[in-house]
Design a protein that fits this description.
Blueprint lengths: L2 H10 L3 H8 L23 H5 L22 E5 H7 L4 H5 L38 E5 L23 E7 L4 H4 L6 E7 L5 E11 L6 E12 L4 E12 L22 E4 L2 H5 L5 E4 L2 E3 L7 E2 L7 E3 L5 E3 L4 E4 L2 E3 L16 E14 L4 E15 L8 E8 L7 H10 L4 E6 L9 E21 L2 E21 L4 H8 L1 E3 L6 E3 L2 H5 L15 H7 L6 E22 L2 E20 L1 H4 L32 E21 L3 E14 L3 E13 L5 E12 L3 H4 L4 E8 L5 E8 L8 E13 L7 E18 L2 H9 L3 H4 L2 E2 L8 E4 L1 E21 L8 E17 L8 E2 L11 E11 L2 E10 L2 E2 L5 E2 L13 E2 L3 E2 L2 E11 L4 E8 L29 E9 L1
Parallel strand pairs: 2-4, 31-35, 42-43
Antiparallel strand pairs: 1-3, 3-4, 5-6, 5-47, 6-7, 7-16, 8-9, 10-15, 11-19, 12-13, 14-15, 16-17, 17-20, 18-19, 20-21, 21-24, 22-23, 24-25, 25-26, 26-27, 27-28, 28-29, 29-32, 30-31, 32-33, 33-36, 34-35, 36-37, 37-38, 37-39, 39-40, 40-45, 41-44, 45-46, 46-47
Length: 980
């Protein structure tokens, strides 16, 4: 079990003030949240403890009982721990934990226009993806901020969070679907009294990404403290890091950008024993230039510059495939992606409760949150040699037009351009707005002579996501506008197509650095750009009861049980130019009819959003038992924990999750063992079941090797069934032995196998599978009919598998330096995860499993660690921390060789050098208690301003991986917080 995760909790669990406070009063607590003892940093009893005689509920289990030690590792980060990290957004603090791998955020997906996850702060455990990590607020589900159902942590009220539990084992038996990787549970201070605030500001070394945060919370009891009201409000603004535009230049003086790329050799070179891929720097794409490049025929290599004048393009050296090294790098677009989005979050939250008596309350919580992002995925709109320019184009210089007419029998040249003459870069504006209300009751009652605790609630949540894209072109209109001729009657330059002219076409000049015709720009990039409006709704009714049912031979036998009903639904609408004119969106502005555009949509350069809708409901019930089986002075103490959950989905049918675990406090001083095995589930989400339909024309090969033209209909698959995971873990904990009272060590092994993984297939893969006898696919394939009637429904199926296993480590040691004649207290902590395997198997004939552990183009390094050293003395606290990821490879499937290479295959390409370095980042923080109520603090992240490791791809993306590396650079923050 992931004891180390539990250790994660303890690792971060020590704030400077906490360590100082507890050093003199008690020994260091075990690195194990399941001990059911308050965190050492928080001497006041938890809310759960206050209500139920020091019983603490931990998120890894539904059992709340004195002395219960759960088998599932759970890390707990207190509010003081999160304060030490001093990030503007709590999400940015959590993703530093080694167990969290693959989370999204404002530095990821900045290259994407159409993914829909831009600016989404969602957590991922074990690299299994955000879809397989369940994120809760006070143990309750939260409406998804995306059609996949994942939540946005930025929409949570963060100032009132008193702790975050990170459950790194499978938890579906306790919480239901999506908890394959684990659970992250945000626990708020439900009875907060007083006033507290936080004000923070900062920026990077490069004077960008300037940010500010204001938070305030107030709580008070009325009517003899039976009525309790608490409210909080917070706003965070991070200005982001804008694109520098074209060329080999990083934003605002960052000099590490070197145009990285993977250069692909020719088949002849590969046959001669050279590798297929070579990592290069200063890569120049040969299919386009900043203001235009002729890419074929006798004029190949002619570029256009100021005033439209032609000049010989500088290709650089070692030109192979699509790339040269060096030469004219002015038109490269890789550096044009924003490093971080402009980001704004606003949250308002309130909780009102009424105590019916000393043990029972009813309550209402309400949350409104809005998260806005703005970013540019790339400058211009690169056309990589795929344009056809006719020789009589009116904007061509006379010399080029004459040479074209004599040298190109077809009357046209191939042409590529970065379209740097465009007056604005594409910019994407996602806005997510959440409205959520919960009414509930909790408390305790007596039955059959036993005390029982309960909680019940009903939730209604709505999330509206609006994606708008500005300054982006319509492909058909662009093609019409660049094909310009002189009107024989008037001598004016006009669009060649009479139909396009009738529809308002205005010509543009794409030859050289010349001011664009703004009438032409407004024609190809109308004000009403791509738009998507999504409404997601979640309704939940849930009830849970737990207590001791009887006294066993080794202690009380505890029981928890409950039931839940949930309904999720969504509707999504795209604009008519993207989704098709037959499905006019009720939310989008009016889009003028244009017969030159495709009526079925997909007209935009990017951002072609489509319409869809769907819903499902689920009924589920669970039971969990904790049975003490051993209590002996000779053999120690042990308990067994079992749970079972039955679910029934209106779409995916029945599913079952279970858990069997045990803990043993051995007679060996400070040594405890625990193990758990569980079956966990993830039901298909709304987007997988009811994806918006898109249609494209394709060709596939039938079983006889004949090419067949088809319609590829990209759709959802209502026949999907739940994913099933088997999660096994075993942990060893050494906690405060008598011979080392301030020492903790934990080691946990985990193994997670996921079957029936939902994975999308291509049209050809579906045809091949149907021919191979997979009947569940054949219903999506029809290729033997008359011409024009053949189709393949490209959709997702339950074929794939995932398998991840590894080991978590944590150690902690605290010492009073006064024992050595020095002032203060010192706390040393370290947490690390070693991922042994992260295997993905598509499950499709002709494909092979791939190993993701150590693949540095992904999100699962072999090692990820977080280490800190904290010193506290009097009013002053200092913390030094290190974040480390190990070196890895481009792909574990690549074969590294320099000469005499084998012929590469699709599964195993060859590469000159498969090594990618790791990275270490050092952070420094300080706190100073100005008064007992007010603390000033400062933080420097990435103290050495370490540049991100370049991770080139086969295309010219930015060449970095923000999922693993710090892409922002040294960042300074200062702030003040107070509590009264």
């Amino acid at each position: 079990m992931r004891l180390a995760v539990a250790s994660a909790c303890s690792w971060l669990a020590l704030s400077a003030a906490q360590a100082q406070q507890t050093q003199q009063t008690q020994p260091i607590q075990p690195a194990d949240a399941a001990q059911a003892t308050p965190a050492p940093a928080d001497p006041a009893p938890t809310e759960a403890a206050a209500k139920v005689d020091n019983v603490v509920t931990v998120s890894g289990s539904r059992i709340a009982a004195r002395g219960f030690t759960q088998p599932t590792p759970t890390s707990t980060l207190t509010a003081a721990d999160l304060d030490k990290v001093a990030k503007p957004n709590m999400f940015e603090s959590l993703i530093e934990l080694p167990a969290l791998q693959g989370s999204t955020g404002r530095t990821t997906s900045t290259f994407s226009t159409s993914s829909g996850i831009q600016g989404l702060s969602s957590l991922s455990l074990r690299g299994l993806g955000t879809l397989r990590t369940l994120t809760l607020l006070d143990g309750q589900r939260v409406v998804g901020a995306n059609v996949t159902g994942v939540t946005d942590v930025s929409q949570f009220p963060q100032l009132l969070v008193k702790r975050v539990d990170v459950v790194t084992g499978g938890a579906s038996a306790s919480y239901g679907s999506d908890a394959i990787g684990g659970v992250v549970n945000f626990i708020t201070d439900k009875k907060f009294t007083g006033f507290k605030f936080n004000a923070e500001g900062g920026m990077t070394k490069y004077h960008d990404d300037k940010n500010g945060t204001l938070q305030a919370a107030w709580g008070k009891g009325f009517a003899d403290d039976r009525l309790h009201v608490s409210v909080s409000a917070e706003i965070t603004k991070e200005n982001g890091i804008d694109s520098p535009g074209f060329g080999e230049v990083g934003p605002n003086g960052r000099d590490w950008y070197k145009n990285p790329a993977l250069q692909e050799s020719t088949p002849a070179m590969q046959a001669a024993g050279l590798p297929r891929y070579t990592s290069i720097l200063h890569a120049q794409h040969i299919q386009y230039a900043k203001y235009g490049l002729i890419t074929n025929g006798p004029l190949k290599g002619t570029a256009f510059g100021p005033g439209g004048n032609p000049y010989p393009f500088q290709y650089g050296s070692n030109c192979v495939g699509n790339f040269c090294i060096g030469g004219d790098l002015s038109g490269s677009v890789g550096a044009g992606t924003n490093l971080a989005m402009n980001f704004k979050r606003q949250v308002a939250y309130t909780r009102v409760s009424w105590d019916l008596d000393a043990d029972n309350e009813i309550y209402l919580t309400a949350n409104w949150a809005q998260v806005k992002s703005v970013f540019s995925p790339n400058p211009g709109a690169a056309k990589q040699g795929n344009l056809s320019v006719r020789c009589d184009n009116a904007y061509l210089p006379a010399s080029i037009a004459a040479a074209c007419a004599s040298g190109y029998p077809s009357g046209a040249m191939s042409y590529g351009t970065a379209n740097a003459e465009f007056p604005a870069n594409i910019n994407v504006h996602p806005t997510r707005t959440q409205r959520r209300v919960v009414v509930g009751a909790d408390g305790k009652f007596s039955l059959f002579g036993k005390d029982w605790s309960y909680d019940a609630y009903a939730e209604h949540g709505e999330n509206t996501t609006v994606l708008e894209v500005h300054d982006i072109t319509l492909n058909p209109r662009y093609n019409f506008a660049i094909d310009a001729i002189k009107d024989p009657a008037t001598g004016q330059i006009v669009c060649r197509s009479a139909a396009a002219r009738a529809a308002g076409c205005q010509p543009i000049n794409i030859f050289g650095n010349v001011p664009i015709n703004m009438a032409g720009w407004n024609y190809i990039a109308p004000v009403n750009g791509p738009m998507q409006h999504t409404d997601s709704t979640q309704n939940v009714v849930s009830a849970n009861v737990n207590g001791d049912v009887m006294e066993g031979w080794a202690g009380p036998i505890s029981l928890a049980f409950g039931a839940e009903w949930r309904r999720e639904e969504y509707s999504v609408y795209g604009d008519p130019y993207g989704a098709g004119v037959s499905t006019q969106s009720p939310y989008s502005p009016s889009y003028p009819a244009d017969p030159t555009l495709s009526a079925t949509g997909d007209n935009w350069f990017a951002g072609n959003y489509h319409n869809g809708q769907g819903a499902f409901n689920v009924r589920e019930a669970y039971v969990e038992l904790n049975i003490p089986v051993l209590k002996s002075a000779t053999w120690g103490e042990a308990n067994v924990n079992v749970a079972d959950r039955e679910e029934k989905y209106s779409t995916a049918g029945k599913a079952r999750a279970w858990k069997l675990g045990a803990t043993w406090k051995t007679p060996v001083d400070g040594l405890r063992l625990r193990a758990v095995s569980s079956k966990d589930v993830r039901a298909p989400n709304l987007s997988e079941l009811f994806a918006a339909t898109t249609v494209t024309n394709q060709a596939v090969n039938n079983a006889q090797g004949t090419s067949v033209q088809i319609q590829q209909r990209n759709v959802g698959n209502p026949a999907l069934v739940p994913e099933n995971a088997r999660n096994n873990s075993f942990g060893i904990v050494l906690s405060q032995p008598s011979w080392a009272r301030n020492f903790n060590l934990s080691v946990d092994y985990f193994d997670i196998k996921v079957k029936n993984v939902i994975n999308s297939l291509s049209a050809q893969q579906e045809v091949d599978l149907c021919n191979a006898g997979y009947q569940q696919v054949c219903s999506a394939v029809s290729i033997n009919g008359p011409a024009g009637t053949n189709y393949v429904q490209a959709q997702s199926f339950n074929f794939a598998q995932l398998h991840t296993r590894g080991v978590d480590f944590e150690t902690a040691y605290r010492m009073n330096l006064g024992d050595y004649g020095m002032p203060g207290n010192l706390t040393l902590r370290g947490l690390a995860t070693r991922t042994i395997h992260a295997i993905s198997d598509p499950g499709v004939p002709g494909t092979v499993p791939s190993e993701g552990a150590g693949n540095m183009t992904g999100n699962t390094p072999k090692w990820k660690a977080l280490v800190s050293e904290s010193w506290e003395h009097g009013k002053l606290g200092l913390t030094l921390s290190q974040r480390w990821i190990s070196a890895g490879v481009y792909s574990n499937e690549y074969i590294e060789c320099q000469t005499n290479c084998p012929l590469p295959t699709a599964a195993h390409p060859t590469i000159y050098d498969n090594h990618i370095p790791g990275a270490t980042y050092v952070d420094f923080g300080a706190t100073y208690k100005v008064t007992p109520q007010i603390t000033a603090y400062a933080k420097i992240d990435n103290l050495a301003d370490r540049a991100p490791v370049l991770v080139p791809q086969t295309n010219l993306s930015y060449g970095i991986n923000p999922a693993l590396y710090d892409v922002i650079g040294r960042t300074y923050r200062v702030g003040v917080r107070g509590s009264f």
